[in-house]
Amino acid sequence: MSFFEDEDFQNSLVALLCRDLKSLQECAGVLRAEDFKPLRGMKYGRPRWILAELALDHFQKFREPVGRLLKATAIEYAATINLGERQTVELQQYCNYLLALQPIAPESVTEKVVRYKQEHIKAATLQEMVELQASGMLSNEKWYEITQKALLNGHASTATTNYLDTLQDRMSRRRQQLRYLRRPWTYIDPLDNLIQGLGPKELGMILAPYKRGKSLMLQWLAVAYVLQRLNVLYITLENAQASVEDRLDSIVSHIPIKVLSDYPKTLTQRFEKFKNLVHRQLKIYDGTTGGVTVPFMEQLIQAERNRGFLVDALIVDYDDEIQPTVKQKDRRFEFADIYRDLRQLAARYNIIIWTAAQTQRDTEHLKVISGDRAAEDISKLRKVTLALSLGKGEWNNGESIYLWVAAANENTSHVGCHIVPDRKRMLIYDREATVLAARRNGVTP
C-alpha cells in the first residue's frame, strides 16, 4: 500500500498544497494531478482530485499557494466544466473540510512524497534504460538525456518561469487580486482609505518615539488579522507575556485594562463572542529572556507547522531586542542583516511580517516623522515594504496620533491621517472618538 492509497495522508497533503508555500516548493515539482486519482470507495475522491489539480496549477502559474482563494477558485472551476449541483456541493464541502484541517508534521509528509516519487522515477528510468540497452539503442547521448531528465523531474527547486510566455498568467493574478482580498485591512478606517495593507512575502515596520504606541499598534494588527482568518504568531521581546495577554483581553473586550479583574463575567461573555467570530488562531511566544534571532523565529514557525499551525502573519515586538546572528562592530550593520533576514523569511514562508523600531531622540513633538528619523540605521526603511510612523497629532489637545506613511513600495508614500487612541482600553484606534474629532476639525470621516 502506497501513501497515495491512504486517504488521511492525501487529505493532509492536499491541505498543504492549498495553503503552505514551503510544502509546494518542496514537492510540487514531483507531483501530478493523476497522483490523486481516486480509488473505488474513497470518500471525497473526486473533490480531492480536483482541488489537488487546482492547487498545483495555481502554484505553477503564480508561485504561491491558492490559500483563501480556494473556494472561489473551486466554484469558478465547477461552473467552467458544468459540474452538477450535487458534485458542486460536495466540492464546496471538501473545501470547508480542507480549510479547517490542521495537517500535522508537514516536513514528514513532504519528505515521504518526494522520496516515494523519486524512487518511482528511478525505477521508471532504469526500466527505460534496460529496454533501450536490450534493443541496442542506448547510446551515450541517450543515456545522458534520460538521466538528466530523471534528475530534473525529481526536484522542484529547478523550476523557473518564462517571463515572455506568462503574460496571461500575470493578468489572471491581477484580476484575482482585485476580486479577492489578498492584503488584509488594518481595520483603521482612515489608513485603509489611504493605502493598501501588507500582503504575503512583505515586511512592515511601525516607527515611533518611546511610549508612543508601537506595541499597541502591533497588538491591534494581530487582532485585526485574526478577525480576517489569518493565523498569527506574536513574538514579544520587550513586554512580558502576561502584559501582552492583558492588553489583548482589553482590546477584544473593550474593558479598561486596569479593571479587567473587576468584570470577569463581562470579559468572559465578550471574549467568547470574539472567539466565535474568528476561525484562526493567535499564538504568543515570550522571548523576553533574550536570545531570539531570525533563524530562531524560523525554528518557531517550523515547529508550529509541525503541530498543524500554519503561520500567515508574524509580528515581532520589537526590532531592538532581536539578536543578530553574527555580531558586528557597528549596530547598524547588525540591523541591516536582521532586516534582510526578516524580508527573506517572509518570502520563504509566504507570510506577512510586522515589527517596530524606535525613532531618534527629540522626536516626541513631531507630527510628521519621516524615515530618516529612524534610530541606529535609516537603511531599515529601504528593506521594508511599508513603514508607518506614529507622530504627535493635533486633535484632542495633542492626545491624537498622526499616522504617516514614511515609506511604501506598493502604495503612495508621504500621506497621513489623524487617529484618536483609547489607552485605557488599549485601543490604538477608537473609531467613534476619531469620527467625532474629525468632525470637530472639519475633516470628513
**Secondary-structure element order, N to C:** HHHHHHHHHEHEHHEHEHEHEEEH
Strand content range: 5-15%
CATH homologous superfamily label of the largest domain? P-loop containing nucleotide triphosphate hydrolases
CATH class of the largest domain: Alpha Beta
Can you describe what's shown?
- The chain is an alpha/beta fold and 445 residues long.
- The protein folds into 2 domains: 1-174; 189-440, P-loop containing nucleotide triphosphate hydrolases (Rossmann fold).
- The protein has helices at residues 7-19, 21-27, 45-62, 70-80, 85-100, 106-134, 140-153, 167-179, 189-194, 214-227, 241-253, 264-277, 294-306, 331-349, 380-383, 431-440, and strands at 203-208, 232-236, 282-286, 313-317, 352-358, 386-392, 401-408, 416-419.
- It has an 8-stranded mixed sheet.
- Strand 6 (386-392) and strand 7 form a beta hairpin.
- Helix 10 (214-227) packs across helix 11.
- The longest helix has 29 residues, at 106-134.
- The termini are far apart.
- The mean pLDDT is 87.
